[in-house]
């Protein structure tokens, strides 16, 4: 059920897509998100984006759980992530071929998408925006959302 791919950037990052929604539930916090283009008619509608922690702690694995509804069966394509600091010049990108290690087509309907990743301990702290874009095998955008989150060090309480 898992998709593991080499990362294009320096920190460890792997993507796991679970179809259908996993019954396991990590304690999570809802992230705000908006569509890249509010007028676009995306065939994938996102209903929730949850982070296992917020702020995300540098050097510690975390999970982004995106719940979406797809109007169409997914027969191919890529998930692309771009994580950009608001404050400094730091961008991390990642892409995964959905069907490379996952049996397609993925049925129309509601699904959960789990992204497991980790910022390096030396990543700049602060506010980041994640651009998450899905494209189908023809390069057509299935969905595109922007979600902000904070990256910090662990606090001792
Ligand atoms: C992901 O979020 C959905 C919707 O809130 C939830 O049903 C599911 O259990 C979550 N999955 C994980 C692994 O946390
Ligand atoms: C998000 O990423 C997609 C794919 O790279 C791009 O087309 C789109 O313009 C980006 N949107 C924003 C608001 O950054």
Automatic annotation (TrEMBL):
| Matches recorded under InterPro entries | Ig_E-set (IPR014756), ML_dom (IPR003172), NPC2-like (IPR039670)
Which keywords appear in this protein's UniProt record, sorted alphabetically? Signal
Q: Which GO terms describe its molecular function?
A: sterol binding
GO terms for biological process?
A: sterol transport
Query: Which superkingdom heads the taxonomic lineage of this protein's source?
Result: Eukaryota
- Residue intervals of the MD-2-related lipid-recognition domain: 33-149
Q: What are the boundaries of the signal sequence? A: 1-28
**Cross-referenced SMART domains:** ML (SM00737)
The protein's name in its UniProt record: Uncharacterized protein LOC107496777
